[in-house]
Design a protein that fits this description.
By secondary structure, the protein is an alpha/beta fold. About 45% of the residues lie in helices and about 15% in strands. The chain contains 11 helices and 5 strands, in the order ααααααααββαβαβαβ. Strands 3-2-1-4-5 form a 5-stranded mixed β-sheet.
Length: about 250
């Protein structure tokens, strides 16, 4: 039998109205019975569904009872999946872990770090040795953030090729007038987030990856939390909150 998915079960329970929560709690406590169960002890119950007079069962209520057609309609694809794959979710008042849940966790752990094409990296390192301070924009993203078991994250690093702020302002003016994406911003690399999937880890991964590759850098990020945590960790390991990094802060 599959393990109980306590994380998503709790999340759903927290989102239910008090009336719906009451019924679920009764079901978990075995206080909410089918008509076929009631027929074994109640004189006014004979077994059929009280709405359509068909034999009552959990499977029938979830998949077939016509009284619940409108309730099932928005979730028909999900119900079809459970039926086609032989899932017995209708027998339990809680969610079960997906059979491939462990595999998904392993795949998250094996996600490789973002890499930069070798010739591009060498050219940037040469510019750095010549005293050029490289500028980057970093960002992280998270899909399905409300679900710990289903969400997945990624991050990207954008290289700013402008030589000064005046050129950046000119790029902004051209973008406003033409709508064309500034050619001075080039995607350097992007990757999926390794291990735990969260927006904070994604933001931090991008920043850390830049610092691992380049010593002189100016990093633009819209995550003040990422800056705060990075500076905290940097001060613990290097005794300085800057560690060679110029922060542009929140965009």
């Amino acid at each position: 039998m599959l393990a109980i998915n306590t994380v998503d079960t709790r999340r759903i329970l927290k989102g239910l109205a008090s009336s719906g929560l009451k019924h679920i709690v009764q079901e978990i406590a075995a206080g909410y019975q089918l008509e076929t169960q009631k027929a074994k002890w109640a004189a006014d119950a004979d077994g059929p569904c009280q709405y359509c007079s068909q034999p009552d069962s959990r499977y029938y209520r979830m998949y077939e009872c016509p009284t619940a057609n409108d309730v099932r309609a928005p979730f028909q694809d999900t119900l079809d999946f459970f039926q086609e794959n032989g899932r017995d979710i209708h027998n339990f008042p809680f969610l079960l872990q997906h059979p491939n849940a462990e595999l998904v966790g392993i795949l998250h752990q094996q996600q490789p770090e973002a890499e930069v094409e070798h010739s591009t990296l060498q050219r940037l390192l040469e510019l750095e040795q010549q005293g050029v301070q490289l500028c980057f924009y970093t960002d992280g993203s998270l899909c399905h953030p409300e679900s710990i078991t289903c969400r997945y994250a990624a991050y990207s690093i954008i290289l700013d090729t402008c030589v000064d702020d005046e050129e950046r302002l000119q790029s902004v003016r051209e973008w406003r007038n033409t709508g064309a994406f500034p050619h001075t911003l080039q995607k350097l690399t992007a990757a999926r987030t390794t291990c735990v999937q969260s927006i904070y880890r994604s933001e931090l991964f991008a920043i850390v990856r830049v610092c691992e590759m380049f010593a002189r850098r100016c990093i633009y990020t819209d995550s003040m939390a990422a800056i705060k945590f990075f500076q905290c960790f940097s001060s613990l390991y290097h005794g300085s909150s800057s560690h060679g990094t110029t922060w542009a802060g929140r965009l």
